[in-house]
Every structure is written in structure tokens, then in C-alpha cells.
Amino acid sequence: MKYNTTNFLKGFIVCCFGFMNSLLIAQPKINHPDAQFILNNYNKAEYKIEMRDGVKLFTTVYSPKDTSIKYPILLNRTPYRVWPYGEQEYKENLGPSIYFAYDKYIFVYQDVRGKFMSEGTYENMRPYIPDKTDSTQTDESSDAFDTIDWLIKNIKNNNGKVGIWGISYPGFYAAMALIDAHPALKVVSPQAPIADWFWDDFHHNGALFLAHMFDFMYVFGKERKELTTKWDDRFVHTSDNGFQFYLNEIGPLSNINEKFYFNKVPFWDSIIEHPDYDYFWQQRNILPYLKNIKPAVLVVGGLYDAEDLYGEINIYKTIEKNTPDNHNYFVFGPWIHGGWARTDGNSLGKIAFGNSPSPSEYYLNNIELPFFKYYLKGYKKVNISEASVFDTGLKKWELFSSWPPQNVQFKTLYLNNNKALQFDKPTAKVDKILYDEFISDPANPVPGSRYESNRMPKEYMIEDQRFVSDRTDVLSYETSIINNNITIIGDIEVELYVSTTAGDADWIVKLIDVYPDKESEEEVFSDTSLYGFEQMIRSEIFRGRYRNSFEKPMPFDANKITRISFKLLDVLHTFKPGHRIMVQVQSTWFPLADRNPQKYVDNIYKAKDEDFTKAIHRVYLSSPYQSNIKVRILEKD
Q1: What confidence score (pLDDT) does residue 3 get?
Q2: Per-residue pLDDT, 4
Q3: Which end of the chain is more exposed for a tag (fewer CB within 10 A), N or C?
Q4: What residues does CATH 2.60.120.260 cover in the chain?
Q5: What is the DSSP-derived secondary structure letter of residue 303?
């Protein structure tokens, strides 16, 4: 069947955690007749599958009407409901993409324990139990095992092979199925998966991603009173001015329960009581348990995944490290969260990536479907590389035998005085320690985006940073014009030497591609607004109190020079001739990240208005306190 890009965005609605902005997400429906094809070619049945502890999970099964051959099972376990309910009500799309419906599989969707029509009590990121002492102890690994076992024994015409896929929170459930996997489970595709909620979604190096969390938890976080097919009501904003809402209507995080949640969101209460990386978060980290993995794995993620970037990268790397002989593959395209399943991936904001074929078309046709067909149907194996990663500067796919690849050179970019950024370490002797300083005011924070939104704008990760370049509380360091391609690959190590007049501070570092100005003849843009465009390539926040330990925070000593280090997550981006490389440093990023009071308080979630104070922050620029970022440069033949 030919892929129809024009109609790619038409289609039906599925519930998927990662797209926090709406909870209900459009999936691709390539041709309108797809829904009729599914109706004509599949039978639907609903079951309540009993787990080992007696809890029954609501499950829908779509089986091909043609029973002349046996089919593999494709399972999706979700906390977002298996809508539509009722054996006469059909989904308009089945599987990871519509191609799977035409290729014929037995498709299974399941409400996870405690959600919608499944029995039991729901627990966010339910911890894995490594040493079960009782045959009735359960976790998401055992629920997946018991579900697969029942399906293999009870669903007619299955060929004894099962695959699992899921995007975002369902990606977490897919990854959990890898642990103590059922023998029939042959292939798993965690797509934009959560791995550890202290690092994914709402938390970044100790800071809370406020605009991302608030609306989602208002709906998803409430306790279910009874079995239901419906979502709770969403939070209704009175305007699109999220900056003012979070600054003035919410104010300190301690107001959220008093004004909006009213202690009806248990997981928010847990966040409040566990501000640091203690046992509560550690036991919800699945990475330590991804060992001895038997099924083949296809980890899929977006380079501009504003939600679960950490999970997709680290699940792949952890499996690669712990089970090096596993068939473990990585796809990293120019997508937003789950974008491969609901957009063509041709562009994001003002940045275009090309459309012949579109990034999503390439992935769906050349990687995803052939991968599942090989492991579940025994079709001829296609030549899929270990890592298929999109270069967001050259706008093309690159194929690697490992991620990150070995043919790299480590180089350091030094922040220098006069706002310079350079690969050569400054050697000039100075009479005094050099630094830049700025006043950080929580009452006037640096905006995280110029888009007016009550949520996290999907474009923020690629946004033009000129909208904050003139602020006195944003420091910008820039190279001279580069003459040759510079391809930065993998993660980026930040090393800052800083001081503050207060007891705490956040540090945001942004890596930026500065496009040629209008007078340059190096590159011509059809969109004139791209001249001088400052495209953010990667960014991250670090809460300074965690510089020594995420378990045991500590205040800064006022005015004392202090080293902090952290990483910006993986990239593949080529800076082209005529461009410049820029690094920006700031201390607020609102309302993407919550405001640090800057006065040190034991628990920022309980800070009051009077705790928020201005502070003078310094970034040091000369030896022995030379702030820098370390990058991998891809060496090409």
C-alpha cells in the first residue's frame, strides 16, 4: 500500500500519556477507507483476563476474520483506556501504524491494572519486585507475563509469537515486559518510554517541569472511584497566557493543593513529600532491572521529544550495556514526542527536514513494519542498522553500528570573556579571575518560550532564541563563523564554575545553531526569517543544590566559586559553514521549569512567597575556573 503523506494527519484519536497537551492524540489514518477495511476484516472481542493475584484486566482483541492461517499477537498495554468500548465499536486504526492492519495480526489492547475498566489499584510507575516471595506478588512485568500466557492459550489462530509496543507511558509498560519476559514474547518496541520519573517528563536534574505537569496530573492523577470508560474533566484555563497563570495565579508550588488540586491528586502529594532522589523515586527506576533481555528490542525516540527524551536514550543504552548480544536497535528521528506515529516529521516550527521521503515515511516503511514482520512472521530480514539517527543540520538519516559511534573526537568549547566561545583554551594571562554576572529575579523569570501556552509548547526545543538574547539575565557566548561542517554527536558535558549571593540557584545551558545573517552568501533561505535564526539544538536545567548528590542536597556558600557539572542529552547535528555555535547560560526558564526561590529551603515544593529573593549569579571564565562544554565531533571519511 502506498504511503499517502497528504492524508497522514487525518484520522482517529487514541489516548497516549506522552502528549500531555491534550491527552487525546490523533494517530495517522492514511486513507479514510482504513476504518472500513478493519471493520470488514477483523472480529472484535472483549475479555477480562485474570492475573495471578485474582485481579482481572479489561482486554480487547481484534482478530483477522480469515482463519486459514495463524497470526502473531501484537499487544499494547495502556493507562489511557482501550477506547472504544463495546464489541460492536471498532478502532479506526490498529497497531503501531495502519500498515500492520493490512499485514494482518491479532491486535490486543489492555487497560492496565487500576485504570478505566480494569480491576485493582493504580500505581504510577509501579515498582518492579525483583525477588517475589509470594506467588501472588505482582508488578507490571508479571501482569504482562500473565496476559501473554492467557492470550497464547486462549486466542484462536495465534502462531505462538507475541510482540509488544507502546508510546510514552505505554512505552514504559512495553519496557517492563522485557523483564522476566514470557518465552512467547519475541519482540518489544518501547517508543518514547518513561524510564525513571525523576529524570523523565516532570523532572530535569532536580527541577520540576511545571507547565508540563500541571494539566496532566490534574486529570490523570486523580483516583478512580469505580470502573469507568470515561476521563475526568480537564482543567479549564481562562486564557492562553500560561506565563501569567503560573506566575501569578499559582505562584509558589505550595499553592497548588490549596488553590487547584485540593489533595485529590495522590501522586502530587508524593512529589511534595519526596523532593529529592530518595527510595520513592529509586524504586521506580526500571533501568537497573533491564538485564538478560531475551526479546529483540526496537527503541524509538524523537530528537525533539520534550517529554521522555531521557527514557528512550537510556533504555537503549542500558540494554546495550547489560545484554550486549541482544538484538537491540535504536531509531532517533527529528520528531516531537511520538511524532513518528502522528506526523510526517517534515518540519517543526520554522525548521524543515525534507519530505522525500518524509522522516516518518522512511521509518514506518523501512524499519518498523519489516522489523516486526521478521521477528513475528519469519519474513526475510531487512538490513536495519544498529542505530538510525537523523542529522538535524544536514537533514538526512545517518546509519551507525553503535550509538554513539566510536569514530569521534572529543573537543571542548570554552566560554571566554567578551562573550566569545572557542575550541582553543584561552592562554592569555589575566591579572584577575574573569567572570560574567547577572541579577536573577524569580519575580521576573526568563520565559521558556515566546509561544503563549498553558502547556509545554512542542516547538520550544527548536525555537529561535533571539527572543531572550537581549535580556541582561541571559549570557550568550558565540564562536566566529565556522568554515567547515562540524557534526556534534551524542551527549554533551557541561562544566560551569559559578557563584551566587544566595543559597541556591538553577543553571540552564543551551546549545544553539546561529544561522548566517542576511548579508551572508553562504546560505540562501526561502524563509527570510531564518536569517540570523538562533535555533536551539539542545538544552537542560540543573538545580544547583544537587551538584554533589541528588539524594542529599546542600546550599551554596554565598559568593564561593563552585563547580557544577551535568549533561545535555544526545544529539546529532551538523553546524554548516557560514553558521556560528552559541551557548547561552541563564538561571530561570519559566514556566517550563518551576522557579527556584534562591533562598535555600529544605523543600522547594513547600516554599512560600517570602522565600523568593533576587540574587547575583556569576559564571567564571578564566583558569583555573574555566567554564566549558565538552562535545563529541563526528569524524567522517
Answers
A1: 36
A2: 41
A3: C
A4: 408-634
A5: T
Neighbours of 620 (CB within 10 A): 22
Q: Where in the chain is CATH 3.40.50.1820? A: 13-196+284-400
Phi, psi of 463 (to 5 degrees): -75, 150
In whole angstroms, give the CA distance from residue 240 to residue 383: 47
Side chain identity at 448, as an amino acid letter?
Answer: G
How many CA atoms, within 13 angstroms, populate the side-chain half-sphere of residue 90? 18
Q: Report pLDDT for 355.
A: 81
Q: For residues 85 and 97, what is the distance between their CA atoms, to the nearest angstrom?
A: 21
Q: Which amino acid is at 89?
A: E
Residue 604 CA: distances (Å) to CA of 253, 545, 550, 595, 607: 8, 11, 14, 9, 5
* Listed residue (555, 455, 424, 435) closest to 497, CA to CA: 435
Secondary structure, 3-state, 78-137: ECCCCCCCCCCCCCCCCCCCHHHHHHCCEEEEEECCCCCCCCCCCCCCCCCCCCCCCCCC
DSSP string covering 486-523: EEEEEEEEEEEEEEESSS--EEEEEEEEEPP-TT-SS-
Question: CA 115, CA 224: separation in Å to the nearest integer?
Answer: 7
Indicate the residue type of 537.
Answer: I
Domain formed by 13-196+284-400, architecture: 3-Layer(aba) Sandwich (3.40)
Phi, psi of 214 (to 5 degrees): -60, -60
Radius of gyration of the chain (CA): 25
Query: Is residue 359 within 8 Å of 335, Cβ to Cβ?
Result: yes
For residue 522, the model assigns a pLDDT of 66
From the list 391, 389, 371, the residue with the least C-alpha distance to 328 is 371
Run of H or E including 605: none
Phi-psi region of 283 (alpha: psi -120 to 50; beta: other; left: phi over 0): alpha
Mean pLDDT for back-to-back runs of 10 residues, the chain (637 residues):
37 37 38 84 98 98 98 98 97 96 98 98 97 93 98 98 98 98 98 96 96 97 95 94 96 97 97 98 98 98 97 98 96 98 95 92 96 94 91 97 96 96 90 96 98 93 97 98 97 98 98 90 80 97 98 98 98 97 98 98 98 98 97 89
pLDDT of residue 543: 98
What is the CATH number that goes with domain 408-634? 2.60.120.260
Q: What is the DSSP string of 305-374?
A: -TTTHHHHHHHHHHHHHH-TTS-EEEEEES-STTGGGTS--SEETTEE---TT-HHHHHIIIIIHHHHHH
pLDDT of residue 637: 64
Q: Measure the CA angle with vertex 151, ends 147 and 153; round to 5°.
A: 120
